[in-house]
Design brief:
Length: 478
Amino acid sequence: MQDIRQEVELALTRRQLFSRAARFGLGIPALSSLLSGATNAPASASHFPAKARRVIFLHQSGGPSQMDLFDPKPAMKAMFGSELPGTVRMGQRITGMTSGQSALPVAPSVFQFAQHGKSGAWMSELLPHTANVVDDLTIIKSLHTDAINHDPAITFIQTGSQQPGRPSLGTWVTYGLGSENKNLPAFVVLLSTSNTPINDQPLFSRLWGSGFLPSNYQGVRFRSGAEPVLYLKDPDGLDRSSRRLMLDGLEQLNRMRHEAYADPEIETRIAQFEMAYRMQSSVPDLMDLWNEPESTFKLYGEEARKPGTYAANCLLARRLAERDVRFVQLYHRGWDQHNELPRHIAMQCRGTDQASAALVTDLKQRGLLEDTLVVWGGEFGRTIYCQGKLTETSYGRDHHPRNFAWWLAGGGMKAGLSYGETDDFSYNITKDPVHVHDMQATILHLLGMDHTRLTYKFQGRWFRLTDVHGNVTRQLLA
């Protein structure tokens, strides 16, 4: 049987080895040469002047249909029910949900489009409120991704890899820039309920996880209801002074443990206990809407009064931005419309359109939009061909990675710009493609970070959000 002391020595990390070696006689010059150029310390500073200080990412989970919302294709009216030409599809793989269909009939959008604002951007009748702020938006119609199914596609958007285990975008941002608020987490996650019966796409906590980065950079999920953050309240019979004494004692024990093992996760644990203590005051203040005037609920809609709704979370995102929370990630399910898309997308837009536009307007009125980057979009687009039964009033659409649409506002984006073009079928990009890694690189650039320099060494390899490619799309920048 192996001696317990041997097991401890074998379990030593590289950092622990150097820590002990320094105490037990390895010279400083030798230690310096070993450590030279091999630090994983966070940047904690911009690489160049930033346009944005914070991000609010409104992720529309499921894949909103670009040709029903932002990318009108009037020529499709004449092709109703005809087979998608092979010259358009060009052998592109399709999902198992439509690969068995005997035909791929063209399904034109049933919704009307019009141009809005000074920019003349096209917008669906489903988005009247968003149309009112169109001159504040940058609409990108030429995004494309490598993934065709939900989980790898969302993982790719959020972490830069289709495989789980990488740090999320919010984690990379907070690792690189740190926090500007000592009483709330730098990275907050909000989940809202679907506005349709479609609510079947799971959202795993690894999407806002820290991966191989220290765990204090992971997102903290705020829930709706009486307890926004679990285990934050003191147990019955424990007052604040007793809690403070307990935490002080616990910190001393953890410090002793850290001196022995130099494990950075012990420091993370200490920091998180202290953050939880401060959040006992800051979170109730954040969640209490008593000081919001009636004009706020007129702007966001009455749904903003109901915790857990999309409107309530958009309002909460503004309140978090006011408190200088670095990254707010909102997930909203219900866009995976394989059947009865016209009915379901109309329901979804009624639940999201007003609040999305209100967030942009509210931030602008408060002088926060200039340095807050708002991102709206899903993990991929939808197909022009119908999934399931096609009628003149109803159709479904399958997943489509070749092109999809996002809009962004504030934070250094070029307002009133529509960027990228697709073919008549909204199937292939014909001008100005933007890859997911390009978009991630651009977001980091707006925050003052070079995506090629924001790296972390793990298991012998230097990793970054954009993997080994991606370019800043400078045409999008103001």
